[in-house]
Amino acid sequence: MEIIFVPIDYKRVRIKNFKSLENVEIGLEKLNVIVGPNGSGKTNLFEAFLFAKSTVRPSIYPPYPFLYWWGYKNMVYMHDISRNVEFGVSGEVKTREGVLQSFSYSLAVNGAGEKLRIIEERLDGGSFRITRMGSELKVYLHEREVSSYEILDLRYSVFNLFAYPAKVFDEERGKWRLVLQANVGLLNGPPQVLVELDEQSIDALVELYWRLFSDVYLLKFSSDRARTPSVPGSIIGIDGYGLFSVLQEMYSGVGPEKKPEGFLDYFLDRFNIRLRFQNTEFQTVLMKLVEDGLEVEPQGIPDGYLKAMAVLYLLDLKPSLLLVDELENHMHLKLIEHVISAFRASETKVLATTHSPLVIDLAKPEELILLYKRGRSTEARRTENPEALKAELAERGITLSESWLYGSLSDEI
């Protein structure tokens, strides 16, 4: 398999006032299995990333990231619209030459009156920083202010306020420059930001500006939506709609020598599955499955196969971070094992929520994040000593899931 280039390593996330997540901060490992009883906030953690991505990289204009929750009141902690919802991430961005640059990004929004207002925002890429407070935006280089702007529409993030950055070489000075073109319809100020930086820092900032949250994929799978015929050219949605279209684009008409190689292809080979596509009279795509020579209509395709194909298709897109809500739903243990093995073999970080003891027992103690409620607020913890926990479980002859179910894991962390 080809070497996978994953430019952003999301290391920590902090969420404030999103649903039950009044103030939660967690570190992200390679595989993160989110466990907790019903109502503990597992799906809220998943949806917080959906909110952040919808704000930073909106799919509708003007941006309105509250639509999924039917309004800001239903999204903010305790329905208190006087509170701001905050989301922040930090980590490292990697250039194609392998250079690492630390970064952090945070935003605070309010939606009282059902109108999005980004109250604060900060993008920090080392020596280069963009900050906003209210309608005022400033750009800094080495802690020195180099540009300032008035924001004309508070609904837009810095990723919309400036065009994507460019790297240019100044022949006269023999220096590299980072160029950001201001969106004149959204900003009042200089037409562009032009700063001198070393080439490696510029490369890292360009990767960050292109990819932050664009390379975060989410799946809250619905088998009914996934098996619905979709329009050619559709992208896969958070619920799996569009699966048939993206798989047709990937597989239809390719010969063995052009067959895609990846986690999905390995899954199809292992389970002896072939895909067959048909364009309907309604200009949509439906997919049939051929297993051991038997053709299966869309409504007969097992839900677990559809979900595994959706997860592995997304994994083959090589995102920096993949989130899957309720990983175990629809899938038998054999499929769960296959998918988790793919997670481990990939370069993608994965965050998966679960209720299932099967998933917990396939995880390592250090990969678990346990959520629980303290009053109305969700709190998150990892085990402080995973090696000691492993030894204790082995000595007592119980599984990780049994430890969680009977409370000793909860007590330990």
Automatic annotation (TrEMBL):
Transmembrane domains' residue ranges: none
GO molecular function: ATP binding; ATP hydrolysis activity
InterPro entries according to UniProt: ATPase_AAA_core (IPR003959), Bact_Antivir_Def_Nuclease (IPR051396), P-loop_NTPase (IPR027417), RecF-like (IPR014555)
Gene3D superfamilies, A to Z: P-loop containing nucleotide triphosphate hydrolases
Chain ranges of the ATPase AAA-type core domain: 31-361
Pfam families reported in the protein's UniProt record: AAA_21
Protein name (record): ATPase AAA-type core domain-containing protein
Organism, scientific name: Candidatus Marsarchaeota G1 archaeon OSP_C
